[in-house]
Amino acid sequence: MPQVEANGLMLEVEEFGDPADPPILLVVGLNAQLTVWPDGFCRLLADRGHRVVRFDNRDVGLSTWFDHCPTVDPVEAFVSFLEGEEVDAPYSLKDMAADAVGLLDGLGLDSAHVVGGSLGGMIAQRMAIHWPDRIRSLTSIMSMPRVVPLDLEVVLALQPPELDPSSVADTGRAEVEEKVVEAALVAARQFAGSTHPLDEDRARVRALEDLDRAWHPDGGARQILAALADGDRRPLLAEVKVPTLVLHGTEDPLIPPQGGQETADAVPGSRLVWIEGMGHDWPQTAWPLLLRPICDLVASVEEGG
Q1: What are the boundaries of each domain within the chain?
Q2: What is the C-alpha separation between 217 and 11, in angstroms, rounded?
Q3: Which of these CATH numbers, 3.40.50.1820, 2.40.110.10, 3.40.50.300, 3.30.70.260, describes 3-150+218-302?
Q4: What is the pLDDT of residues 209-258, one digit of tens each?
Q5: Quick check: pTM over 0.70?
Q6: What separation in angstroms does the CA of 78 have from each of 85, 118, 129, 183?
């Protein structure tokens, strides 16, 4: 996969579809690599006549890491946030949004339809706030305009296992894989909804793929600080004129439906679509329910609607 220089960083990028088709930029969530957007999902978007771009955010995957910044305890930071204390972050969500805008520059795109999931939805919101001329449409999936009350027990499922796979000898590889898969399955079971069953085999494969590709939980911890420090975006979103779609699962245990409702309420003229029985994930059985409204919005904008 190629790397693109953007905002002074190197971002890992992968594309699907015809470069001449309307571009869709997919922005991933917390501590997530670009592979979180499944290949099949990206190909279906491309087959519907779109140039699909997915990338690793800063500090995760194969994009530039910020290991010169201090290591943080995300749980401690979250508790401090709940107690009303100010959170000091090494970079902001606006910085991460600037990375995405720089990526558009690097790809020679004057604008794109932006689809963000979870933390990626928050980054996409910042793009719409600060660079509205670069966004043809905004789709915010299972996200929120501020940190709404969250279940701490569910949040703790995001904690990766404590290990350093780079220092483990080949003989210890099985133990590392076991810990990574176990943690991934705990989180996946916690985040799944009732209507769309969890594919545990796929969750295991993805966990091992992420381990081999780029294991970097410190970056995810710093991304948590960026989200906690960002404050309430609702007053700024009230000024957004970008055509906006909000998608949210009715059984999301991590970012509750309140987050989706508040996002839709904040952006004038936005459309809110509930995905019945979906949790904080996008299982294959839910893809048609996600693809249809996204493609409808893109088509409407491209046709001048």
Answers
A1: 3-150+218-302
A2: 17
A3: 3.40.50.1820
A4: 999 999 899 999 999 999 999 999 999 999 999 999 999 999 999 999 99
A5: yes
A6: 10, 17, 25, 20
